[in-house]
Amino acid sequence: MSESSRSLRRILPRLESDLAAEIAANPAVWRAFRERIETRFAALFDLYYDLYGTRYDFFYHLEDLLFTLARAWFERPADLRVLDAARESNPLWFQSHKMLGGVIYVDLFANDLEGVRAKIPYFQELGLTYLHLMPFFKMPQTENDGGYAVSDYRQVHPPLGTMEQLAALARDLRAAGISLVADLVFNHTSDEHPWAKSALAGDEDARELYFLFPDRTIPNQYERTLREIFPDEHPGAFSPLPLGEGLGERSGWVWTTFHSYQWDLNYANPATFNRMAGEMLFLANQGVEVIRLDAVAFIWKQLGTNCENLPQAHALIRAFNAVARIAAPALLFKSEAIVHPDEVVRYIHPAECQLSYNPLLMALLWNSLATRKVRLLYQALATRFAISPQTAWVNYVRCHDDIGWTFADEDAAILGVNGFDHRRFLNEFYRGRFPGSFARGLPFQENPKTGDCRISGTCASLAGLEKALNEEGTAEVELAIRRILLIHGIILTVGGIPLLYLGDEIGMLNDYTYQNDPAKAHDSRWVHRPRADWQKYALRHDLQTIEGRIYAGLCQLIQLRKENEVFSGNQLHVLSTENLHVLGFERRFGDQRALVFANFSEQEQTLSPQVLIQAGARALVTRYGHPTISETGALTLPPLGFVVLA
Fold first, then answer.
1. Is 192 a catalytic residue?
2. Annotated catalytic residue 336
3. Cα–Cα dist 514/19, whole Å
4. pLDDT digits over 477-516, tens only?
5. pTM exceeds 0.90
6. 183, 191, 279, 336: which is the annotated catalytic residue?
7. 3-state SS string over 47-95?
8. How far apart are CA 528 and CA 458, in angstroms?
9. List 294, 402, 505, 586, catalytic entry
10. Which among 284, 263, 291 has a CA at the least distance from the CA of 329?
């Protein structure tokens, strides 16, 4: 008998004793849980043992974890158990061509959760099947990193509503065919979280949930190999603690990878894992179907390393995944790792994160618009797009965060491109400071010594619409709209789940009023988080308006995706177009195929008959776009044209 089987045989009787009342009231629920635990416990045990097996109290924490899982299973609503069964019978549901994601801030889009519920008809009109609410948990009133400093995982931020309203919203979205997606900030809590407050008050159990040190001795040892994330706010990775009752005259230091008010959690302590597993399952029981794991690269610390992307970070995520497979099997994980492409892909696995943001595609779409060349994009799709067939990319042209140029320097070098110099060019271009730039973006986290930064801006402003409206006129407006539709066309057809930052579908421009708010003025990312303007949304069906033209164009692309099953899954073959300005790729699903061509130049581009013959395009018909085909069989794409043949 395996060690996991022996452990389960010892623990189950005690669980049955502790849960006797619940079992008596719901014996069928307990039988279902026992079946799940008996078939899935071994995977969880192995991961948990790898992380914590050397501790003397390993079995105490293991039993505590199983009690957390059992209690969460009893509390799971019946309709979510029905969803669990449906997801387990169709585990690749998220690869459907019908999938379309949207992301919003609750307050900026609709004021509060009830406002979001009222917008469900709009989400259905757009075709969303996946709605990501940016952080809505209770947070500090002042500095809160846009909600990523969580003061309580089980409370909604009061101005937004209540947890009961969130659960009701999840039910209504589910009835409308829309999965609710939420962030779970695994790496840190706010310094206002009850755990942090207890730690400040001297509670030893609470202190062990974080990294607290009485002096700089150990922090100095760690910082020899750590990089600074926000050096302008605080040097290094540690912040001084405020004096607190029970801590003596000197309170010490706390690990804060990001902001000084965000305390990193100590996952070397199994109690931390167990508590966060409980928070995750609570959220799943409110109806959240996908959780985005924030800052996953940083969740394990080890002296002598950079404390990023360590093997134990992957083991932690897999252990959390094993927890979900037992107690909330409908739940999926989405990784957010804005790191080297080699590291991004290591988080993607059916047993780890089934979904992952694709920051490389996002960055290289903007790169291709700036350079009018597709070399880096072609290379990335050919060599870095393929992932497990049981997983999916989440493809986006922008999100709530900044744009970082995450291509690998070694990839660029193969093409004769110096990575450092090229990033400098892209930063200047998207700040509108490079001659001929169409973009209007702002720098984020600029380093004046190196010139390094990342870029903030809405899709429309970065694509040239703001500049065109303010300075140039009708022709440039047309090109800006084409750029917007071009890059959205690619994320809708390339494979995976396309994700729209709502507001982009009507061409919302940069909102510079954030500079008047002292709480936001230092963070340029607020420029691309404009409050939804529903007067502009009301214009979306008027094709005489810019809002209407962008919306109609995007809806046409969405319809193309949803009507063609060939865009399911993630099988991709990149085509050689023999044209530096034109990207080409083939999608296959079953016996269906489609060819996609995208011209990143403001001039017409022609593909030779030989290219089309080699791609097998002669027998296909145009499903989208307006190419012209010569008597010789050459295909000409219009400026910034997007064409689909099927």
1. no
2. yes
3. 52
4. 999 999 999 999 999 999 999 999 999 999 999 999 999 9
5. yes
6. 336
7. HHHHHHCCCCCHHHHHHHHHHHHHHHHHHCCHHHHHHHHHHHHCCCHHH
8. 5
9. 294
10. 284
